[in-house]
Amino acid sequence: MAISIRSRQPWAFVAFALMAVATLTSTAVAETVATVNGVAIDSSIVNIYLESRIQKPADQATPEERETVLQALTDIYLLTTQSDAEEISNRPKIKAQIELQSRTIIVQAVAEDFFAKNPATDEEILTEYELQMKTTSPLQFKARHILVETQAAATDLIAQLDNGADFAELAQTHSTGPTGPAGGDLDWFSPERMVKPFSDAVAALTDGAHTSEPVQTQFGWHVILREDSRENQPPTLDSVRDVLKQRVEQVKFQSYLERLRAIYVEGD
Asked: Does 109 fall in a domain?
């Protein structure tokens, strides 16, 4: 069963450091660590940038890592406090980039706050699991297919199969899909993994039979052989709990966003 459900430019590390604001968990009171051209660099800034660089809590940083980050921040502050920096920061494009970066950080913080205050309950997770179970096929299939570009080519292949041709050999010779070299082998799969016209065609076959008509999908025209079938073994609730929890919370957040959109439209 499949259950559906976050290039660098010069000085891009500045933006990366700002993005890390949302992940900082320290609640310690900030204190000035250094002053550059009259502008203070406080410990919260150092910790944010440090965590973004070393990918671990700031209190686990070595003295060497902390010193390296402090030097990098000093360079950032030197460049952003030079005489031309204010004029540059007021250029329309730069102002727009700063505004967008600021909004992005706030959005991440708002989303994290929403998820913290609106966690998925056990009941909601169970309901989502039961819903997924209802839409899961009772069977899995083992199949092969031949993918070609035209209906005529697929019809010709079906005629060859009707006359006794080997399916795997035809797939190796004619299929344009990635499974062609393997004789069109798709191995075992649940119908939900495939596009609907394909899965419907497989479900309509009996084991050992191939399609009597070409099957069209957005990928092209298919000739399908259903080799075998077996009972589908759905995952246990515990094995997919984290995925379901994330899905439920994403749906809640989407509903919250849609309510905000509705209020905005009504007030416009």
From this structure: yes
